[in-house]
Amino acid sequence: MSRFDPHSHFDTDQPRTHRLTLEIGVDFERRRVLGRAVLDLGGGSTGPLDLDTKGLVITAAATGRGKPIPYALGAEDPILGRRLRLDLPAHTAQVAITYETAPEAVGLQWLAPEQTAGKRHPFLFTQFQPIHARSMIPCQDTPIVRAPYRATVTVPEALTAVMSAAPADAKAHAQAGKRTLEFTMPQPVPSYLIALAVGDLTSRDLSPRSRVWAESATADAAAYEFAGIEEMIRAAEQLFGPYEWDRYDMLVLPPSFPYGGMENPRMTFLTPTVLAGDRSLVDLVAHELAHSWTGNLVTNATMDHFWLNEGFTVWAERRILEALHGKEAAALGWAIGQNALDESLARFPADSPFTLLRTNLEGVDPDEVYSSIPYEKGARFVATLESAVGRERFDRFMRRYMDRFRFTSITTEEFLMFLNTELPGVAQRVDADAWLHRPGMPAGAPVFRSERLDTLRTLAQGWNGGTRPDQAEAGHWNANELLLYLQHLPRPLDEFSCRWLDAQFTLTQQGNYEILVEWLTIAGASDYEPVFPRIREVLTSVGRMKYLRPLYGALGGHPRTRALAREVFREAASRYHTLSRRVVESVMEQYRD
Ligand code: BES
Ligand code: ZN
Prior knowledge:
By secondary structure, the chain is of the alpha+beta class. It contains 19 helices and 19 strands.
């Protein structure tokens, strides 16, 4: 037995999945997915085959020829779920498993009609990264294993399904009141990049290779926000080479989606909180798009190498931003990232192993240690390599890196070997060892200077000394400038200051959620009552963990805001995604009483 991924039962001595075929029925009444998963093993095999499952009820297992396969489910592990061990008869080339999901499957969120924009139809979406595919599909749920997939999905007639795949011809004989859609993903992908959403969806074309899907009520707003997507794809192709996934479509989800975005190939999933109305948050799409190269083409082998996905992608996102909007815009991006990094570093003790880039998460739930560190420390490491050899040479290196490892999943060690071959001596020169294997930030870590940032920071930090922004000038700040200014304000503030800020920048009515939540965090920490209704509104509708964490955190400081937080959570908890609910619970455990 040889296990490689601490978060999977996958055994490297056993056959790998070469192709996956899924037949899925979506039952909104029982909140269950009924499935049949066929795994092609790429040739005949015998003996044990270990798969990951979580909450699945297995009803049958058979070979491709219909011969039953003996199987057993192992003990429940709170992080990994249960191992499904199949005992393959001689020369088994294909296994077919019939099963049903649990209503509380962590990779699925079932929404009641009231939780959607249209209010008339239910909604289902998946979120499989990091290790939740196993709650919908019995599979080798590790990114080391990649396979193309095909799926047929049967849903209520009034609804549509989309997947992280290309639509294929719909099947004819659906049951009454149902429709069946077919999808195909020809490129080999890890299980965490399989994705499904079912709801009352419509789409708007944005370019010959891109469209946005959303509920009818948000479709026009989404089309407006993402109108520039083709330009962004072209900028990314200029930097990183041809886009390899044919189409780049997007899906705007209902507000309970727990992340900002998820790079599901061919179909990025997005929170509706990016629809600011003025395109000020489309950087997030640059990030998910960049994953088409860094993450989806070259993939982390396990969550211990997660920085390979996110660090490179944050770096790539800012290169796209620079290509589209110039150096100053990119510098503001790095500055905003610095705040996120500082907050994440503060969340862990100084010597915490969770601040390493190359982690060892054996026995650790990756969702619990999710932070900005792999993103922002990782991106700073990549930027350090870039400045050590110069941009031109580094860009050529990146092209070769993506060429060498395309459609594969790699470790930090494999990356280092490649770096040492292609750019000898550089790893040592920048002290790669400190970046990867030591906690916190290395001494020589780059600090991104921007004159705008310095001005805004000084202005904000002078608040208690009476410094105020010039009203006429502040009226011309862009969204990121205002955000940076707010991020550097001291807190708590007194009531008069809160009122002044809100009047000056109309903060409580902001359409840009980054700004809105930063403001509500300041106002909440300041026990500023006029914003309580808006806080309640945001916390009862939005499930994005990036917003719930600071907002619930800020409400911990005063008896009155703690009471507000508890009351809102009682009301909202059952509608949050499981992961969002866990985050809020852990934040509220820190409350003083
Ligand atoms: N792949 C991540 C989301 C993710 C990571 C989900 C790990 C589950 C486990 C995605 O690309 C991401 O990083 N999203 C960010 C936005 C981005 C602009 C930093 C988010 O959701 O906030
Ligand atoms: Zn990402």
